[in-house]
Amino acid sequence: MASRAFITGLSGLTITANERSFLREAKPWGLIVFNRNISDPQQLTDLTEEFRDIVGWQAPVLVDQEGGRVARLGPPHWPVYPPGVRYSEIYDRDPTSALATAKLAGRLIAADLAEVGIDTDCLPIADVPVPGHDPIIGDRAYGTSPGKVAEIANAVAQGLLAGGVLPVLKHLPGHGRANADSHLKLPVVDTPRGELEKTDFAAFVPLSELPLGMTAHVVFSAIDPASPATTSATMVSEVIRGFIGFKGLLMSDDVSMGALSGTIADRSHAALAAGCDVVLHCNGDLNEMLQVAGAAPELDGVAAQRAEAALAARRAREDFDVAAARKIFNQMVAVTS
Length: 337
Hints:
Layout: E1 4-8, H1 17-26, E2 28-33, H2 41-55, E3 61-63, E4 65-67, E5 70-71, H3 85-93, H4 95-114, E6 120-121, H5 146-162, E7 166-172, E8 188-189, H6 193-198, E9 212-215, E10 219-220, H7 233-243, E11 249-254, H8 264-274, E12 278-280, H9 286-295, H10 301-312, H11 322-334
Helix pairs in contact: 1-9, 3-4, 4-5, 4-11, 8-9
């Protein structure tokens, strides 16, 4: 069954009759879930199973489950994970221990997600924050040096993959230097290209083989002063596909965010025209979902090949004693420097 080049959200805990019709007719490539879609493990399992039953195949189901402030699954049904900065702190004391802890975090998160039918996590982040800039990344980051960030991000990604969950690398080519929260307004970064290539962009280069990536709604004025990376053909071709060398399926960040302008259809068209393979739309507003679907073609050509390659990276979960691993993980993150 051919899918269209977008990932959709839903409005609530169950799929409404109108949403059911929409999913059948529009054929989104995937689903992303948020807090409004989650109450308990059985409900979430039922939701993911029904979505796949409606679209007729084992379509990807995504979530933002980083730990810290960005965690859609949490108590009382799911454990709390630390923010990315915790792995950075451990790294400063013992890099080997930090990478083992980060990989174990990915593996444990994957275990949580796989149990409820979620097979794709919008993690790791390779953004490199800069002092004095917007705190939207802040303690979510794995450090302030690109080498450390890339190492920890890769460890998390490998843990997810070992648990049968696909990682989504974000936010290409970097959100750490943003001077605004792109959920609310458009950040503009005026840093020279040479410096960006040594810092922000450099953190993503070692991660270019990961199966999926998400763009940043950030303008890099030294390269394209007119458009954010999501809707900039120059940024996608020269930086994300070029300098960074990212080879995986490229999805936009949420096109309903405040950083972008124009109608939802305009934003969707612009992201696809710039080189995004898939448009991400998150808020569950059916009228907007219809606009996204109308702008998104069937996945075809190179985009379809990248989608197929990404899904082929899904693998069976390796044997894993979750209870024992969680006890070890809690001990590892509790050790102070």
